[in-house]
Amino acid sequence: MIQQRIARPSVIAVDGRSGAGKTSLAVELAAALREHRTVALVHLEDLYPGWDGLARGIARCAAEVLTPLRRGEAARWRAWDWLGEAEGAERVTEPAEIVVLEGVGAGSEQLRSLADAVVWLEAPADERRRRALDRDGETYAPHWERWAAQEEAWLEADDVAAAAAVTVVSTPGPGRPEQATRRVLDALAEVPALRDLPARERAERDPAAVAARRIPATPEPAPLFEALFGGAEHAIWLDSSDSPRSPHEGTPGAHVRNRFSIMADDGGLLGRRMAHSDGATSVTFGPQTPTPATARFDQPFFRWLDGAWGHGGEAAPAGLDCGFALGWLGYLGYELKRECGGKDVSTASGGGTGIPDAQLVYAARAVVLDHERGDAWLLALTAPDAEEWLDGAERAVRGPVAEARDEPLSLPAVPAFSARDDGGVYRDKVRAAKAEITEGTTYEVCLTTALEATVGRGGFDGWAAYRALRRRSPAPFAAFARFGGVTIASTSPERFLSVAHDGGLRAEPIKGTRRRAPGAQPDEDALVRAELAGNAKDRAENLMIVDLLRNDLSHFAVPGSVAVARLFAVETYATVHQLVSTVEAQLRPGASRAEAVAAAFPPGSMTGAPKISTMDILDRLEGAPRGVYSGAIGYFSRTGAADLSVVIRTLVVVERPDGAATLSLGVGGAVVADSDPDAEHDEIRAKSFAVLSTLGARFPE
Question: Whole-structure pTM over 0.70, yes or no?
């Protein structure tokens, strides 16, 4: 029989300290991959020449096993006889489509240069020792310390964990091997070199069905979120906090924006989360399980999103009119502009904001509240743990309705905010922006700055602050998000972009703001609304952004479908009046939805026009990255739908290693040719009022 020559195989190295679980995982991984292709499984311990042979075993494996297998040739080598303490009989490893190499040192520098991906297993030291001695006690026990010292010396010089494409953390507790294997396969599929490798396995396992329960109930949202997701380190609530007893005054159709609220986390067997910073992406599968697996790779965010979100196409449960039917939720920070024609400010300025450019959770289970119909929808991807979660969520929804806690926010100390730019500096920057307009390099500059405060350990509760904010300043795109040490409390009234499941695109830029006096009477509101609606400067600002968005949407739209559905409408909120327009289009069939979002990012209402040159001007004037502020918060659904808000009126809280926290509030306004520096400074004071007043804080003088 003639052996068919195998083209260059894919090599997966599984490494970790002794007792981390490498062998079990490698055997399960090889078995799963063998269902559709040939697999060679190599155990590195067969190549160590004795208890002091770690380095020589690595060298032998590279020369005698991986090098010929990479050429598509059979590998001939001699296994070590551990009882006889000598080389044993010759073995032959036939070429295969996939080579799985496991053992201490499998991911070493010499071997990973021959591999496509390294999987690193991490486990507590006492757990590793217990596993290793339970497995090979009589043979291994006398040599444990000797071998462990050899491992540590090697790892001090070669940080395999940092170089690994996939990391698996194993903790003591219940866990099924096949579930850990699935998470590793999912993580390997994120690695660019192996992206197509487990495609058939994933297609067979990915659940197409969503289990849904529709419950006629109107639970208080805040206590419900706390009950279901309060303990999750990564959770998000897209909160139509002004829903929807009456649409915004003078705003026909506003109920479309505030009908639904969505709550989710990264929990469950099929949950996952991602983070992206400066071109590097990490995706963690099963983050709340005993054996989460994390893939790390270099790839632009929007290219990753195109693969992760794709073209949608999954049907929503019958009767659920919300575009969201599980999928990705989170934030896209402003500095992703580096992928959309802007410069990389975080690198140019010598450092970023200290938090990822984007973070998303993949909700395998979620709650959708339909405020208009008075229904609570419970959604979960079909999985072994789905029914248990649905039962618990239903009990929470049907249980005694918790009262909304309306007590005032109580802080140990009122945060003392300082401004990145004091009044004089900000006015000078307004003048500089006007000079750019005079020179003809831009038409409109959306200049921003930041207010910051530091609070001591335990001095700030982001969840309590958000509950107070949503009572003080309800908005259709309010949101609370917790991503580990980062908390986002947003009361945004502005939609950046929505994508309907059928490809309908909609942007609703806000340009033009007036503060609404507390307790304002209808006649007072009417006077302010009329002045805003007729103000030439505000209309000019708004129109420029409308034109910008028409251009942004046109890149991926059906020709002739871009239209201005609403121009210069005044919307009234608890603390402000806003001038809002609506631009709509239809996505071209087959066009990338992620690229359509990228074409409009960052939100034009936060840059100015023309976008690319104006972003460069802003980089020079502002001198610091914006971070989450000016980006977007929302969801990318399995249905292909997306809905994203502009991150304004938003407090970002970042926990520091010492337990203190940094609070940041971005504020800004559009500068045009006839802008008055004093008026522009007054505008940022007005925009900061809702958040600062809720915290009992003052605008810094």
Answer: yes
